[in-house]
Amino acid sequence: MTRQAAVRDYGGVSAEERRGDRRRRLLAAGRHTWGSSGVADIGVRGVCRDAELAHRYFYESFDNRDAFIVAIADQVRSELMTTLVDASTADGGTIEERLRAALTAFLLAVSDDPSMLSIMTADVSSVAGLENRRRETLDLVAEVVLAHLAALPGSTITGDAVPELHKAAQFVVGGVNRLVENWLIDRDVTVERLADTCTRLCMAAAAGV
């Protein structure tokens, strides 16, 4: 094997695959720190230590700490949106049932990994671009809710009503986030019960527009 080939392929793993693995390990370490002690505690040295990687590998994938933090937020947003969309577009059931399924999937996801919600809703004004990411995430969740409400049989949500319903969806999503934050501290009801409550709030918001 030539030296060039060895660089490309070591132990049957390509250089690109090794870079991808290192990036995933760094993100996992940063995500754990953010979820357990807050974004302020994320540092290059600590992340590399937890990921068991030399410092130089951090800059292989990320320009700086802020870019790393934004990448964590993007990863969480992608996972949550995939969860919501996959559950809400599954075949079968009424619009309300599919909305409930999406909210149930969301609750199960943050129940299994509470860091997801804390990352999505954290006060991150000190990191350039992250506040916009947070708003975009909440807006995307609101769009999922809005799409289901607009598809209700007999819905008159068209034209001038759309902006008002969008505001209602944003209002509900903010309230749902607050409910979930409290629920993660004191899980006094089941996932299914909370999902049902959130669904009814969404439906009530639509009815009030």
UniProtKB/TrEMBL annotation:
<keyword id="KW-0804">Transcription</keyword>
<keyword id="KW-0238">DNA-binding</keyword>
<dbReference type="GO" id="GO:0000976">
    <property type="term" value="F:transcription cis-regulatory region binding"/>
</dbReference>
<feature type="domain" description="HTH tetR-type">
    <location>
        <begin position="20"/>
        <end position="80"/>
    </location>
</feature>
<dbReference type="InterPro" id="IPR001647">
    <property type="entry name" value="HTH_TetR"/>
</dbReference>
<dbReference type="InterPro" id="IPR050109">
    <property type="entry name" value="HTH-type_TetR-like_transc_reg"/>
</dbReference>
<dbReference type="InterPro" id="IPR009057">
    <property type="entry name" value="Homeodomain-like_sf"/>
</dbReference>
<keyword id="KW-0805">Transcription regulation</keyword>
<feature type="DNA-binding region" description="H-T-H motif">
    <location>
        <begin position="43"/>
        <end position="62"/>
    </location>
</feature>
<protein>
    <submittedName>
        <fullName>TetR family transcriptional regulator</fullName>
    </submittedName>
</protein>
<dbReference type="GO" id="GO:0003700">
    <property type="term" value="F:DNA-binding transcription factor activity"/>
</dbReference>
